């Protein structure tokens, strides 16, 4: 039986440009007439969309080198989403009932060019897992850091979307010891007990220095860094690097989560003498440079999920009206793992 579509749909718009970190007061849930797909287009009913810190950079507007458009006042937010095709225009290779991923989240229904959608198939046991950030972690560990058996691996921002997968993946790739960093003692405990991190250093005003904690956690030094934070955590990691250490820089949360920046920089003090003397490599990871990783990751991730060798730590926030608050909570570090907004089925 055909699904009866609503006459209107809702979306999240930026209504005023923030000074500093955006909060719920900068967004509005707006109702719009439901669009009709034209030739080569599909109408997707979104079921899940990703809440991610990169929105801070897009809203900040300082996008040099970023392959995405800015989000200006009046614009609808966007980002990775999983949904069901509920309408298809003439010539579309997709049909109603297909489950797809695309980049027009932050709305209940998305009018998308069929060529901009990817059918999800059954490679992953749960469609929401397509919103994981594990591809970045896996790509950094396999393409840049080249994890070797017995390596000691440090993951900064280990309780975030990338970090909660980077540690377990490093272990599956042969790492002998996995260390994480986080701002929260409660999250540190979860990283140890739920995700198998050997030890976790806690950053914060009341904590011992990161350098001292790393010296205790890795007295022989670290071989690999997966850095999602930058700033002082990258600086501290350099003090613990063994000769020939490989640093893969994946994120810049110290800048994106700072109320004093625009989300486009995360300065760090780098001891270049140590980099040279220890033969340390520092490389930035971008999925654009490694287009083959996404498919490879999905296959391995699906196998690991089905075998129980890995989990997908995530939080589902119900209802589009809670999305702006979910973004603020992400900035505040309130959640563990990936954060997604879940919309009801039609």
From TrEMBL:
Pfam families linked to this entry: ADH_N_2, ADH_zinc_N
Transmembrane region(s): none
Domain Enoyl reductase (ER) per the UniProt entry, residue ranges: 20-341
Superkingdom, taxonomy of origin: Bacteria
Database matches in InterPro entries: ADH-like_C (IPR013149), ADH_N_2 (IPR041694), ER (IPR020843), GroES-like_sf (IPR011032), NAD(P)-bd_dom_sf (IPR036291), Zn-ADH-like_protein (IPR051397)
Cross-referenced SUPFAM superfamilies: GroES-like, NAD(P)-binding Rossmann-fold domains
GO MF terms, alphabetically ordered: oxidoreductase activity
Listed name of the protein: Zinc-binding dehydrogenase
Organism: Streptomyces broussonetiae
């Amino acid at each position: 039986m055909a699904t009866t579509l609503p006459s209107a749909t809702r979306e999240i718009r930026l209504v005023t440009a923030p000074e500093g970190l955006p909060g719920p007061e900068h967004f509005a849930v707006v109702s719009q007439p439901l669009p009709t797909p034209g030739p080569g287009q599909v109408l997707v009913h979104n079921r899940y969309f990703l809440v991610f810190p990169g929105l801070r950079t897009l809203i900040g507007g300082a996008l040099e080198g970023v392959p995405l458009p800015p989000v200006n006042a009046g614009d609808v937010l966007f980002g990775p989403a999983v949904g069901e095709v509920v309408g298809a225009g003439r010539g579309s290779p997709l049909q109603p009932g297909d489950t797809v991923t695309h980049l027009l989240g932050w709305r209940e229904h998305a009018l998308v060019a069929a060529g901009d959608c990817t059918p999800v198939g059954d490679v992953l046991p749960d469609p929401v897992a397509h919103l994981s950030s594990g591809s970045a972690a896996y790509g950094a560990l396999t393409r840049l850091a080249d994890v070797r058996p017995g390596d000691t691996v440090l993951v900064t921002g280990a309780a975030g979307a990338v970090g909660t997968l980077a540690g377990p993946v490093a272990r599956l790739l042969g790492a002998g010891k996995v260390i994480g960093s986080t701002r929260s003692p409660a999250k540190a405990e979860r990283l140890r007990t739920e995700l198998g991190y050997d030890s976790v250093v806690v950053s914060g005003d009341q904590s011992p220095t990161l350098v001292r904690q790393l010296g205790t956690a890795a007295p022989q030094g670290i071989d690999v860094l997966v850095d999602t934070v930058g700033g002082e955590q990258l600086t501290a990691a350099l003090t613990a690097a063994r000769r020939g250490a490989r640093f893969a820089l994946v994120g810049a949360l110290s800048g994106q989560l700072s109320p004093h920046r625009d989300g486009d920089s995360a300065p760090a003090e780098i001891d270049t003498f140590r980099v040279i003397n220890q033969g340390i490599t520092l490389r930035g990871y971008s999925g654009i440079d490694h287009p083959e990783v996404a498919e490879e990751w999905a296959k391995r991730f699906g196998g690991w999920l089905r075998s129980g060798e890995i989990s997908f730590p995530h939080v589902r926030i119900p209802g589009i009206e809670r999305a702006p608050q979910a973004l603020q909570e992400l900035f505040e570090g309130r959640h563990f793992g990936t954060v997604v907004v879940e919309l009801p089925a039609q």
